[in-house]
Amino acid sequence: MDYLxxxxxxxxxxxxxxxxxxxxxxxxxxxxxxxRKLVISNEEKKVRFIITKTADVPTYVEYGAADIGVIGKDVxxxxxxxxxxxxxxxxxxxxxxxxxxxKERRAKLSxxxxxxxxxxxPHIAEEFFSRQGMQxxxxxxxxxxxxxxxxxxxxxIVDIVETGTTLRENHLxxxxxxxxxxxxxxxxxxxxxxxHNRIRPMVEQLQEILDGNQ
Length: 214
Description:
The chain has 214 residues and is an alpha/beta fold. 30% of the residues lie in helices and 29% in strands.
């Protein structure tokens, strides 16, 4: 109960996340996503950081291994984890979209019904296509999603895009946007109640910083 445990994702969200907490004085010696230590503590502030794979952050928070965490909205929605979403942190902006090979572009979205989609986000994809009244076959991949249509594994992909460079390099074209995503601050439901006196002021301070940055 003495410590506030924060789950930070490795990769592109780590630095802006750790920089943001540092503005509140929440940091720790050796805090880096390259560190071999996976749990790094600040005894003075009674803060403990867990550094983990992006997809695992919602799990650590839902089960209370971490009190709060930072995660992209796309990963959070795909995970379906039961956590509080406290703040839109604004960074890590990207969007989830459907893309197909340039030569295979069809007249309208419904023309892709009953085809195969390669994606890291099968739950979001299924929800989206179901709303369009489209049945699809979903192929879950964890690596280079763009490879799916190139090697004939799928007719299309559903994936995250930031600049579109990877799509262009692989001769893929975006068909439709599915959702926008930014980094979110999330909290364990029990922790939010039991450690409210620590979490609530933190959220208010973070909101002030974000408002000041706009």
